[in-house]
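Reply to dn_fold:

You asked what the input looked like. This is it:
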Amino acid sequence: MSPDLRLRPITDADLPVLVALNNAAVPNVDEISSERLADLVRMAAVPVLAESDGVVRGFALALPTGADYVSRNYRWFGLHYPDRDFHYVDRIVVGADGRGSGVGAALYRAVIEATRRVDVHMITCEVNIVPPNPGSMRFHQRLGFTRVGVLIHDRGDYQVALLTLSVPEAESAPDTA
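and this is what came back:
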């Protein structure tokens, strides 16, 4: 990982770069328009990007429980975990020049910390299994995600593994009073 990797919230000025980064990662993520990405950023509980050397290396968007979002994958988690709050990672995208350098892990650390700060204890996401995305599956498994289901879309032409990660409560400082 670049020593000057910096994480920060996404702004409207970032959208053109993020759309290009996102659409270069298709089919591992869905293609997106600037307008749709702007909607997702506004909806996100955690809209974060990673940059180094003045270049955006990746970004992540995590949506809160109860968002007005029509994704079948997102709705699956709401139906299967009706009594739990979660942050749903709608997309995590790392540019080709940032893969394998810790950018994805840094983005997930930011999502985990933001999730913990608002007292939410589960992160959800999906990873393509058709078409396969074995690198992403290995990455999520290393982070501790567990497969909890599979959704089959488009008569089997598109399938996703549904994953969850438990976020433990923050450790409190010892009481010295």
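Strands lie at 6-9, 46-52, 55-64, 87-94, 122-130, 146-153, 158-166.
Hope that clears it up.
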